[in-house]
Structures are given as structure tokens and as C-alpha cells.
């Protein structure tokens, strides 16, 4: 062994949800054979999964190139999109194992002191369903610039819907502009594990309620009862479940009850009349019903009296080490003008405008302690020969995710 990659070298410390899973012998052989950046199709054919072999060799309905079944992450690049299924696909750059929940959370920008609750599958889904924190913060900071320009109060109170593990919530609370900030006194989600995760992290500053919002008849009364505030929220934000529209799902759109929750979000906005709202969903929303669904959503928001901007944002453009794209809607009351998409803060590589390059997997994993199955120290599985200590992405200095 030639040494330890710097992205794995650190002093032992307690980090939540940072435990490696064991793999069966066949899967482990595939993992061991993968080089950095390689995928299933780069392995010897005898190591291919049967379904992958059929897809590549025999499937007459196949369109395009081989689908992604497994990839060893490249520490010098951002990762591909983290989903709830990435934990059986994303292999650590230098350790012969799949990534941990904590490593995936780092790729989403979650702070290390947020502990995910529930079963392993639930924790994986909470991470995979989240909105990247840095992108969220950029969106809300841009919103606060409009609030500052229009003389809004320094502190905006927000209602969080479909909160999940809190990617949007944490981003909102991190955002600032010219002394303006956002607090989130109430967050609502119908997923117990996610509510436990967010409640445990947020503490007394946010009341987290487990509730199906479609069963809330009077949003204004619910807000007043939960927050004890006489005035409604200044901001409503949330990411309605996107499985009905996602390319990773069955794309049943409004035939799937989850697809209707977008309009439950609009109902809350209509009832509460906040100055601003932010809604997030999958990037391919515009392709549903040949664009008809997107027009329907925009019209319903505009009919509530809002100027609405929408666009597809890439999380890597805002400091997340992940090439995740999301469609974002930002609305503000007509008299407040409009809030567009936030300006990017990163680019694929450093440029003449002074923007730094994208954060990488190596940046995101930097400072994490070594692990092995069951949380033991990880030594034997390090792929030391792959290390490139001279790369900045593998520096040893701790980095806050």
C-alpha cells in the first residue's frame, strides 16, 4: 500500500450516519474492478449484471447508451445526481465500497451535525429527495435582495411545506442580504422519519408537524394555531413530491395522487397570500403533457396575483458538488416587481469573471473520517494507487460541507 488518499485521511471523529454497508461477493468483485470514473459497461463482461447484459446486448426496445448501474465517483469532478437509489450505484473514489449516507449528504450540502432518522432505506431516501442546501440558499438570498429593495421587514417568517429533511429550510435560514434574513417558525411534512430528522436538527426555532396538507382545510388558521403569530407568513416554500413527474419514476403525472400536491401548494399560497413563494420540482416538468402541465401551474400561480419566474437550475452552479438540476418557481406579489433566478456563483472551471470552479466530490468528502462496515476504521480497502495528492480536491484541510 502506497499511502492513503488525502480525501480519506483525517483524525477519527464522530460523524452521524457515516457507516459503510457490506456487499455480496459478486457485487464486491465489480466494485473492486472499477477504476475512477468507470461504470458497469467498463467492467469485463463476465462481471456485468444479467439485466445489464440483456439491456446492452439483446433489448430491442433500447434507446440511447447503456443506463447507469454503477459508477466509481471521480474525486476531481462533481457527482452525478444523488437519488435514493445512488447508494447501490455510487462507489467511493478510493475505498472499495458504496458511499455512506453521510457522504451522500455532503454531496447535497447538508451540515454534519444533522442526523438522519429512521431505517437505512428511509435515510437514503431523505438524502436523495432533498433540495441541495447551497442552491436553496442562493435562491432565498436573491429573494431577500428584492425584499430589501422593496423595504420589506428585516426578518421574514416562512412556512415550509413538504419539508423533508430540510434542504430548503436550511438554505432559507442560511440566506442573508443587507441585514435581511428568513426564519422558519413552521414546517409541515407527512413523512415521520423526515419530520424527526428536521425537528431534531432545528430544535425550538421551528415547529415541525407531521401532517397531510391536503387534509388542512384552513391554512391560515393552521398557521396561527401552530405559530401563535397573528400575521401570516411572508414566504411559503416547498418541494411537492416529484415522483409522478420524475424520469426516475413512472411519470404518471396527475394520474398519480402525488402529482396533485403541486396544486395543494398553490392552494396554500392562495389562502395565505405571502409576499413571496418558492416551489421546486423536477427539471423535466415542462415535458409533461407537451408543456401543458407547466402552463397550467404557471396560470394557477399567476391567478393568485403573483409575478412568477421559473427556470432550471444546476446545483453545481451554486457550490454543491453535484450536477443536480431542479426546476424552480419564484413568485412575488405584483406590486413587488419580480424575482428571477439567482446569478450563478460557480462555473465548470475558473474564468475571467472571477468565479471559482465547481466543487468536487473530493472537496465534499474532505475531512470525513475513515469508515468500514459497522463503523470500524477503514484501512484495508483504500485504493491508494489511485490517489493524486497534488490535486487541490484532495487537500487535507477540513472543509465544512
- CATH T-level topology of the largest domain: Rossmann fold
Tell the overall outline.
globular
Termini, distance in Å? 29 Å
**Sheet bearing the most strands, described?**
8 strands, mixed
- Cα-atom radius of gyration: 22 Å
Helix/strand class = alpha/beta
CATH architecture of the largest domain: 3-Layer(aba) Sandwich
Considering DSSP H and I runs of 4 or more, what fraction of the residues is helical? 25-40%
Unreliably modeled segments: 8-12, 251-258, 379-401
CATH C-level of the largest domain: Alpha Beta
CATH level 4 superfamily of the largest domain? Vaccinia Virus protein VP39
Beta fraction of the residues? 5-15%
Number of domains: 2
How many beta-strand segments? 10
- How many helix segments? 11
- Helices and strands, in order, run as HHEEHHHEHEEHEHEHEHEEH
User: What value does the average pLDDT take?
Assistant: 87
Amino acid at each position: 500500500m502506497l499511502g492513503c488518499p488525502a480525501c480519506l485521511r483525517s483524525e477519527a471523529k464522530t460523524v452521524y450516519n457515516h457507516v459503510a454497508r457490506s456487499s455480496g461477493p459478486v457485487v464486491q468483485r465489480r466494485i473492486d474492478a472499477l477504476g475512477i470514473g468507470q461504470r458497469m459497461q467498463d467492467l469485463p463482461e463476465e462481471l456485468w449484471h444479467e439485466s445489464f447484459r440483456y439491456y446492452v446486448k439483446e433489448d430491442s426496445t433500447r434507446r440511447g447508451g447503456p443506463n447507469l448501474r454503477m459508477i466509481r465517483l471521480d474525486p476531481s469532478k462533481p457527482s452525478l445526481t444523488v437519488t435514493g437509489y445512488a447508494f447501490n450505484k455510487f462507489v467511493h473514489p478510493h475505498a472499495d465500497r458504496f458511499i455512506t449516507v453521510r457522504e451522500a449528504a455532503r454531496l447535497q450540502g447538508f451540515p454534519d451535525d444533522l442526523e438522519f432518522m429512521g431505517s437505512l432505506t428511509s435515510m437514503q431516501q431523505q438524502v436523495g429527495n432533498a433540495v441541495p442546501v447551497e442552491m436553496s440558499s442562493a435562491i432565498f438570498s436573491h429573494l431577500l435582495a428584492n425584499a430589501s429593495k422593496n423595504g420589506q421587514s428585516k426578518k421574514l417568517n416562512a412556512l415550509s411545506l413538504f419539508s423533508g429533511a430540510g434542504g430548503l429550510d436550511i438554505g432559507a435560514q442560511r440566506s442573508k442580504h443587507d441585514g435581511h434574513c428568513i426564519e422558519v417558525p413552521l414546517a409541515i411534512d407527512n413523512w415521520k422519519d423526515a419530520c424527526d430528522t428536521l425537528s431534531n436538527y432545528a430544535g425550538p426555532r421551528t415547529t415541525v408537524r407531521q401532517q397531510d396538507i391536503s387534509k388542512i382545510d384552513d391554512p391560515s388558521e393552521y398557521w396561527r394555531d401552530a405559530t401563535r403569530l397573528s400575521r401570516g407568513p411572508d414566504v411559503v416554500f416547498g418541494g411537492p413530491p416529484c415522483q409522478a413527474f420524475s424520469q426516475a419514476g413512472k411519470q404518471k403525472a396527475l394520474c398519480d395522487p402525488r402529482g396533485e400536491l403541486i396544486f395543494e401548494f398553490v392552494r396554500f399560497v392562495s389562502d395565505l397570500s405571502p409576499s413571496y413563494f418558492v416551489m421546486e420540482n423536477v427539471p423535466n416538468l415542462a415535458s409533461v403533457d407537451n408543456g401543458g402541465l407547466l402552463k397550467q401551474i404557471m396560470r394557477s400561480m399567476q391567478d393568485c396575483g403573483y409575478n412568477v419566474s421559473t427556470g432550471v437550475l444546476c446545483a453545481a452552479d451554486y457550490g454543491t458538488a453535484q450536477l443536480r438540476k431542479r426546476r424552480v418557481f419564484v413568485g412575488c406579489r405584483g406590486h413587488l416587481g419580480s424575482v428571477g433566478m439567482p446569478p450563478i456563483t460557480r462555473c465548470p472551471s475558473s474564468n475571467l469573471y472571477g468565479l471559482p470552479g465547481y466543487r468536487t466530490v473530493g472537496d465534499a468528502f474532505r475531512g470525513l473520517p475513515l469508515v468500514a462496515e459497522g463503523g470500524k476504521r477503514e484501512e484495508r480497502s483504500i485504493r491508494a494507487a489511485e490517489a493524486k495528492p497534488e490535486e487541490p480536491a484532495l487537500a487535507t484541510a477540513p472543509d465544512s460541507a
